User: What shape does this take?
Amino acid sequence: MSRYKKKIPEVFDNLDPEILKMRKRAACCIGFQRTGSTVAWQIGANILKKDIVKSHEASENRLIGSILYTYRDPRDVFISMKRINKEIKIDFINAKLIEIHKKMNHIKEDREVLFLKYEDYYSEPRDRIKKISSFLGFDNIICDNIVEIIHKNTSIESNIEKMNRLSNFDDIDHDFNIHGNHIGPEKGRLESWRGFDNVDFSKLRESIVFLGYSI
Assistant: This one.
């Protein structure tokens, strides 16, 4: 588990005692690699002012409290993964994304799960902060000023700055769950898979459809 230490706005330290109790609620962030799980985890840690569980697997023993679940177009996931791991197989990505999404659809039947589609928030990161804040019970507390501070802490620019202090992907800033080379030159842009004509994306067809994306 990572150790999130970032200072949160002081206004949170002066809240009503009943509100402060909410900061103790359990939460976790689940999402396969390259789906925006790191930033969702950072936002949750900012809001709750504590470390929360983060996992790339939907294993029952890691799922505690409220669950933030991130997912992304399988084609972009594969291209982004390939940049980090040249040996990754497209069939593995297809099967894994289906497995996790299927588990989360089942888990949401009796658990609090917030589905965070990567494409919905890439251009509107503040909306993601507000959505997560509301889900965790802080919708009437997180003002625009707090949103801006959290955004500054968790923006892609802030994470690139942290990343650049690290030498390679095995070098990790455990306070922020950021690796060296974590973010590529495309900065996670949407539909970055287009132009990779040498990739047979038909092998991802099942996961593309299952996750609700268009072919």
User: Anything to note?
Assistant: The chain has one domain: 10-210. The first helix runs from residue 17 to 22.
